[in-house]
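Researcher: Re-running this chain for the archive, since the previous output was lost when a drive failed. Same request as before.
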Amino acid sequence: MKPLLKISAIALVSLMSSCTVETIDAKENYQDFNQETANVLTCSGADPQYQFTNNGTVPFTLSIYGGDNNGVLNQDLDVAPGSITDMKSFAAGEVLFSFDCDISGISDIKVVFDMNNCNELQLVIDEDNNLLDAEPIEL
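Model: Regenerated C-alpha coordinates:
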Protein backbone atom coordinates (compact mmCIF):
# COMPACT_ATOMS: atom_id res chain seq x y z
CA MET A 1 0.00 0.00 0.00
CA LYS A 2 2.93 2.34 0.74
CA PRO A 3 4.25 2.17 -2.88
CA LEU A 4 0.78 3.23 -4.11
CA LEU A 5 0.87 6.28 -1.81
CA LYS A 6 4.35 7.21 -3.07
CA ILE A 7 3.23 6.95 -6.70
CA SER A 8 0.13 9.03 -5.96
CA ALA A 9 2.22 11.67 -4.19
CA ILE A 10 4.72 11.85 -7.08
CA ALA A 11 1.90 12.13 -9.63
CA LEU A 12 0.23 14.92 -7.62
CA VAL A 13 3.48 16.89 -7.29
CA SER A 14 4.21 16.59 -11.03
CA LEU A 15 0.68 17.76 -11.92
CA MET A 16 0.93 20.77 -9.63
CA SER A 17 4.35 21.82 -10.93
CA SER A 18 3.15 21.84 -14.54
CA CYS A 19 0.29 24.28 -13.87
CA THR A 20 0.76 28.01 -14.48
CA VAL A 21 -1.25 31.03 -13.44
CA GLU A 22 -1.93 33.66 -16.10
CA THR A 23 -2.01 37.23 -14.81
CA ILE A 24 -4.91 39.58 -15.48
CA ASP A 25 -2.57 41.88 -17.45
CA ALA A 26 -1.64 39.04 -19.77
CA LYS A 27 -5.32 38.31 -20.41
CA GLU A 28 -6.04 41.99 -21.15
CA ASN A 29 -3.07 42.21 -23.54
CA TYR A 30 -4.25 39.04 -25.27
CA GLN A 31 -7.77 40.48 -25.63
CA ASP A 32 -6.39 43.77 -27.00
CA PHE A 33 -4.25 41.84 -29.47
CA ASN A 34 -7.26 39.76 -30.57
CA GLN A 35 -9.37 42.92 -31.07
CA GLU A 36 -6.62 44.60 -33.13
CA THR A 37 -6.21 41.44 -35.20
CA ALA A 38 -9.97 41.23 -35.75
CA ASN A 39 -10.05 44.87 -36.93
CA VAL A 40 -7.25 44.26 -39.42
CA LEU A 41 -8.91 41.13 -40.71
CA THR A 42 -12.39 42.67 -41.04
CA CYS A 43 -11.45 45.83 -42.96
CA SER A 44 -10.50 45.18 -46.51
CA GLY A 45 -11.02 48.39 -48.46
CA ALA A 46 -14.27 49.31 -46.70
CA ASP A 47 -15.60 52.85 -47.10
CA PRO A 48 -14.83 55.24 -44.25
CA GLN A 49 -17.55 55.67 -41.64
CA TYR A 50 -18.64 58.09 -38.95
CA GLN A 51 -20.91 58.30 -35.93
CA PHE A 52 -22.31 61.53 -34.46
CA THR A 53 -23.09 62.03 -30.76
CA ASN A 54 -24.97 65.19 -29.77
CA ASN A 55 -24.32 65.92 -26.09
CA GLY A 56 -25.28 69.56 -26.65
CA THR A 57 -28.40 71.49 -25.69
CA VAL A 58 -29.86 71.99 -29.18
CA PRO A 59 -30.48 69.83 -32.27
CA PHE A 60 -27.85 69.86 -35.03
CA THR A 61 -28.08 68.81 -38.66
CA LEU A 62 -24.89 67.12 -39.86
CA SER A 63 -24.22 67.30 -43.60
CA ILE A 64 -21.23 65.58 -45.16
CA TYR A 65 -19.89 66.96 -48.42
CA GLY A 66 -17.34 65.32 -50.71
CA GLY A 67 -14.47 67.28 -52.24
CA ASP A 68 -14.37 68.22 -55.92
CA ASN A 69 -18.07 69.18 -55.89
CA ASN A 70 -19.24 65.63 -55.15
CA GLY A 71 -22.24 67.07 -53.31
CA VAL A 72 -23.85 65.70 -50.17
CA LEU A 73 -22.48 62.26 -49.26
CA ASN A 74 -24.68 61.79 -46.19
CA GLN A 75 -26.91 63.77 -43.87
CA ASP A 76 -28.36 63.46 -40.36
CA LEU A 77 -31.26 65.88 -39.91
CA ASP A 78 -32.02 67.53 -36.56
CA VAL A 79 -30.08 65.16 -34.30
CA ALA A 80 -31.63 65.82 -30.89
CA PRO A 81 -29.59 66.50 -27.73
CA GLY A 82 -28.61 63.21 -26.09
CA SER A 83 -28.85 61.29 -29.38
CA ILE A 84 -26.30 59.12 -31.16
CA THR A 85 -26.60 58.32 -34.85
CA ASP A 86 -25.95 54.93 -36.36
CA MET A 87 -22.52 54.32 -37.86
CA LYS A 88 -22.73 55.49 -41.50
CA SER A 89 -20.45 54.98 -44.50
CA PHE A 90 -19.52 57.41 -47.25
CA ALA A 91 -17.02 57.73 -50.12
CA ALA A 92 -13.34 58.22 -49.26
CA GLY A 93 -11.54 61.51 -49.91
CA GLU A 94 -11.43 65.02 -48.52
CA VAL A 95 -14.72 65.47 -46.67
CA LEU A 96 -16.40 68.53 -45.13
CA PHE A 97 -18.49 67.84 -42.02
CA SER A 98 -20.96 70.69 -41.50
CA PHE A 99 -22.92 70.97 -38.22
CA ASP A 100 -25.78 73.43 -38.64
CA CYS A 101 -28.18 74.77 -36.02
CA ASP A 102 -31.20 77.01 -36.65
CA ILE A 103 -31.21 78.50 -33.15
CA SER A 104 -29.78 82.03 -32.83
CA GLY A 105 -26.71 82.35 -30.66
CA ILE A 106 -25.45 78.87 -31.58
CA SER A 107 -22.63 78.88 -34.12
CA ASP A 108 -22.50 76.47 -37.03
CA ILE A 109 -19.39 74.27 -37.09
CA LYS A 110 -17.45 73.14 -40.14
CA VAL A 111 -14.44 70.82 -40.19
CA VAL A 112 -12.57 69.01 -43.00
CA PHE A 113 -10.95 65.57 -42.76
CA ASP A 114 -9.07 63.49 -45.29
CA MET A 115 -10.88 60.16 -44.94
CA ASN A 116 -9.38 56.96 -46.33
CA ASN A 117 -10.87 53.52 -46.73
CA CYS A 118 -11.01 51.66 -43.41
CA ASN A 119 -11.17 54.94 -41.41
CA GLU A 120 -13.67 55.61 -38.64
CA LEU A 121 -14.51 59.00 -37.15
CA GLN A 122 -16.37 59.69 -33.89
CA LEU A 123 -17.87 63.20 -33.91
CA VAL A 124 -19.10 64.56 -30.57
CA ILE A 125 -20.79 67.86 -29.74
CA ASP A 126 -20.20 68.64 -26.05
CA GLU A 127 -22.56 70.17 -23.46
CA ASP A 128 -21.48 73.69 -24.55
CA ASN A 129 -22.45 72.95 -28.18
CA ASN A 130 -18.81 72.76 -29.33
CA LEU A 131 -17.26 70.00 -31.41
CA LEU A 132 -14.71 67.96 -29.45
CA ASP A 133 -11.34 67.30 -31.10
CA ALA A 134 -11.53 64.28 -33.38
CA GLU A 135 -9.20 62.36 -35.66
CA PRO A 136 -9.96 59.47 -38.01
CA ILE A 137 -8.74 56.11 -36.73
CA GLU A 138 -7.69 53.15 -38.86
CA LEU A 139 -9.91 50.10 -38.51
